[in-house]
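User: Sequence in, structure out. Go.
Assistant: Echoing your sequence, followed by the structure tokens.
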Amino acid sequence: MADSNSPRPTRPSLGEMRSPSFIQDHQQYKPPHQVSQNIGEVLGSHLDESMSTLALNSNPISPDPEKVTDSGIIHSIFNHQSNLLPSGTPRVVATIFYKSSSPIHPHFHPDVSPNLVPGDKLPSPDIPEGSAPTVDMDKIPREPPAPEPEPLDHLYGPFVSQMCLTNFLQIIETLPTPYRRMNTSHRCLDRNEQPRVVEVTFSPPPNPEYLSFADLRKHESIWRFEREWNVEVVLQMEGVFRRHKRLAVFDMDSTLIQNEVIDEIAREIGVEKEVSEITDRAMNGELDFAASLKERVALLKGVPANVFEKLKGVLTISPGARELCLALKALGYKIAVLSGGFQPLADWLAGELGIDYAVANHLEIDETSQTLTGRLVDSYPIIDATQKCALLQKIAADNNIPISQTIAVGDGANDLLMLHAAGLGVAWRAKTKVQLEAPTRINGESMVDLLYLLGLDHEDVLDLTSKTN
């Protein structure tokens, strides 16, 4: 052990550049002199002499509340100048419809649902319509599907809420762009408070090299968003022709009218079940339309030819169809009905709704007995999917209307070709196959909803459909 009285060894040093004191070595990090000024003295030394007499906590301006005006300057924590997009950057419009006619109740368990009582059985799991070839659980060979996302509209309100819009924009920003901060805006189209229809514009869209626009329309994230918020989303590229179309083409049965005409005729002679089964399979794309039509028409042999006059009192025009056609005519549209049904009723409907073109199938009539022969007139083409698409293009060409300025609406598999060919194709309350394959789809209560896709709002619709315009 070293002697406590022995001199303490000196610290190693680097010669004259270092002092023997550790504290002295770090004097460079201390301020050269002690600061004795207070904040008032510091500020006062830099103020103009004319301002030095003002108290620092006083307001040199006494505003007159009656004369205060808006400067026009908007202050924000974001640097918007850095987010300016080049001119011509593509924009996408998403029209979001809240499905007010089919609210989803979130609680099924009797213990938590006010609509159920103890002792009620829990419902068996089911499959969302359109998500599988069958919704019959007994026919599914594998384990049941994953649980549905919990509906959020019961938490935030039965309308398109701010949280709903926020969630939608978050989803869009997560899609392959590659990432770039988006510019977004929105408009409430039907009402400002608790809107049912909201139009959202965002730019730029996802990079088509990573995600095409067709795939964006059917993206799983958007499908899940629709399920969670009980909404439907229609995506369109923004442009002048989105807002200014000139030709609208409609299917007739289960679109402009709520009936299937051939089923109504079959009901008159008691073969409704046989005809209806064939109709359903044809509309779902399970059967060739032309072959199935001939098969159904054959069952109508012997029906009195005046059956069409009787049906006029039975047919129900779809809700909003009159207002829709009235608005389109006020905007200068040409309107056509292209039907896989029959010509006499297509002509009647054209007269009811002010439609310019009506094309449908022609049934052969026995002139002697004035009954249907069960055959189609050979000199007229069958109005199937191919023919509907060709007629859309022909009517547009005859009126010098670019195909981008057309809209087509239908519900059956024989409408899919024209829905894809038109500038905007909409599956209206369509069959499962059509909802899955159509460019866009709506399942609203009124066909007036189609006007919102053209950028019109509720006041525009009222102006267009008023009797005094």
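User: And one key feature?
Assistant: The first strand starts at residue 92 and ends at 98.
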